[in-house]
Automatic annotation (TrEMBL):
PANTHER family (UniProt xref): BETA-XYLOSIDASE, BETA-XYLOSIDASE-RELATED
UniProt-listed CDD domains: GH43_FsAxh1-like
All copies of domain Beta-xylosidase C-terminal Concanavalin A-like, residue ranges: 316-505
Name listed for the protein in its UniProt record: Family 43 glycosylhydrolase
Sequence similarity: Belongs to the glycosyl hydrolase 43 family.
Highest taxon, organism lineage: Bacteria
Lineage: Bacteria, Bacillati, Actinomycetota, Actinomycetes, Kitasatosporales
InterPro entries: ConA-like_dom_sf, GH43_C2, Glyco_hydro_43, Glyco_hydro_beta-prop_sf, Glycosyl_Hydrlase_43
Gene3D superfamilies linked: 2.60.120.200, Glycosyl hydrolase domain, family 43
Pfam families: GH43_C2, Glyco_hydro_43
Record's keyword terms, sorted: Glycosidase, Hydrolase
Coiled coil: none
Length: 508
């Protein structure tokens, strides 16, 4: 199968989105000729993904900055609306810094000398409920440091407001009680102001922040000669005549060639928040983003040395039993869920649980993003368990879910099963009649077409056969649908064997 999506068209131009997967709430920083991007990871582990590019078009995943979140007790089960919200990445004093807002605990930061790490343990900069979308600024002209953040009404009762602080130069504490820099309620027509990114340019303090809601909003720019205001505002990017709804929240960079560019996301339902790259220029003291303030679909690439055409990896052979960085656990991983071994393939323990009927609440699900609008995914699966009810499979997860895989039947013999649950259902049910799976092996396939419509297939030795009805994938809260691998067993069974997963492949 060929790679499902590349943004680089190979002729000096690119197409949007440059990252056609759910890299939610992206922020970017440039250091020399290198660009680094991070994104929201909510309650998945590891968190704070780190991507690298030399041209802002071709990206690779180079690691994560966060091994775990505290308090750990909050993340032993999936928390899709908690954890890391809208991080900001910066480079200052020879170190990389990432700040984010945890809506239940407050503003936190980690830092490292090298993007590959090691990263410091999370440090709580400001405690409180509903503090989100934090961004720091070190003013190189004055030596002062600042922080701005937004508010989540679900936790604080406050929204449509940006708050600013003076911050200690070491990024560890705030030096005042905070001031409302921009109150969106005072701006006619503005609502849901959030996601601020703070910059210093041409003698002005700049806050680039979206408003109007993720699905239907616009990108705003605010400027002031003084950090504490007052700020002037202007809409600098909106959908206009294009099909790019939103367009929402992102970051500005100036490249080594002196060009300005803006990366932002577009919310696309089950596909999550995909990332677009827009040209940016300055006119009459204000940024102009895209094509006169509307998103571009195809454009010349940024001026940079020619780079190999690439995108973050989705395929995996699981060498030595280790999964690639594209995978995350749905919650804080427990010991023994996946075991390293000689050779290729992932060995997943069939974890006993009373909740095997609902994959949405299981922590021991290994997940990754949908890789494109239309794609096919295949994986080889073997189940080594005779414990009745032990199972393993390949899933599409959101508010609703569907999975196909293997299960040990009442007599321990392996069966091919296909199950699903609607968004309002608490239990899964059969999507197709179970059938024998000789040798406890199967090759599983999901074909995804426009609209995230999923058709399931399986080969148990007699060729691929379709299974069940078409399943329409759904997002879950702010997270797009996810591909998942899992293995479970009924509660109280003790050691229940394992599943062996090999040759995970995606393609068009």
């Amino acid at each position: 199968m060929k790679r499902p999506w590349t943004a680089d068209l190979g002729d000096g131009t690119y197409r949007n989105p440059v990252l056609n997967a759910d890299w939610s709430d992206p922020d970017v920083v440039t250091v020399g000729e290198d660009h680094y991007l991070t994104a929201s990871s909510f309650g998945r582990f590891p968190g704070l993904p780190l991507l690298h590019s030399r041209d802002l078009v071709n990206w690779t995943l180079v690691g994560h900055a966060l091994d775990r979140l505290e308090p750990a007790s909050d993340f032993v089960v999936p928390r899709h609306d908690c954890g890391v919200w809208a991080p900001s990445i910066r480079h200052h004093a020879g170190r990389f810094w990432i700040f984010w807002g945890d809506p239940d605990h407050g503003v936190q930061q980690v830092n490292a000398e090298r993007v590959e790490g090691p990263w410091t343990a999370p440090h709580l900069v400001k405690a409180g409920k509903g503090l989100i979308d934090a961004c720091p600024l070190w003013d190189e002209e004055t030596g002062e440091a600042y922080l701005v953040h937004a508010w989540a009404k679900s936790r604080s009762g406050v929204k449509n407001r940006l708050t600013g602080h003076r911050m200690s130069p070491d990024g560890r504490e705030l030096l005042d009680e905070g001031t409302t820099l921009i109150d969106g309620d005072t701006l006619p027509g503005w609502f849901t102001l959030e996601g601020p990114k703070l910059y210093r340019h041409d003698g002005w303090f700049w806050i680039l922040a979206p408003a109007g809601g993720v699905e239907t909003g616009w990108q705003g720019a605010f400027r002031s000669r003084d950090f504490f205001g007052p700020y002037e505002e202007r809409v600098v990017l909106q959908q206009g005549r294009t099909d790019v709804n939103g367009p929402h929240q992102g970051g500005w960079v100036r490249t080594a060639a002196g060009e300005d560019w803006f990366l932002h996301f577009q919310s696309r339902g089950a596909y999550g928040r995909v990332v677009h790259l827009q040209p940016m220029r300055w006119e009459d003291g204000w940024p102009v983003i895209g094509d006169a303030g509307e998103p571009v679909s195809v454009h010349r690439k940024p001026a940079a040395p020619e780079q190999p055409v690439t995108a973050p990896a989705f395929d995996d052979d699981f060498p030595g039993g280790r999964h690639g960085g594209q995978w995350q656990w749905a919650a804080d991983p427990g010991p023994g869920w996946a075991k390293e071994h000689d050779g290729d393939g992932l060995r997943l323990a069939c974890v006993p649980t009373a909740y095997a009927h609902d994959l949405r609440v299981l922590p021991n699900v290994l997940v990754q993003r949908l890789p494109a609008e239309e794609f096919t995914v295949e994986v080889d699966l073997a189940l080594d368990s005779a414990v009745p009810g032990a199972n393993a499979g390949l899933a599409v997860l959101g508010d609703a879910f569907s999975w196909i895989g293997l299960e040990a039947g009442p007599d321990g013999s392996p069966l091919l099963v296909h199950r699903h649950a609607e968004g309002v259902a608490e239990h899964e049910r059969d999507a197709a009649h179970p059938r024998p799976a000789p040798g406890g092996k199967a090759t599983l396939r999901i074909e995804v077409t426009a609209g995230a419509r999923c058709r399931f297939h399986a080969d148990t030795g007699d060729g691929f056969r379709p299974s069940g009805q078409v399943f329409a994938a759904t997002p879950r809260r702010w997270v797009g649908a996810l591909l998942g691998l899992f293995a479970t067993a009924p509660a109280g069974t003790g050691p229940a064997g394992h599943a062996h997963v090999t040759a995970f492949r995606t393609g068009a």
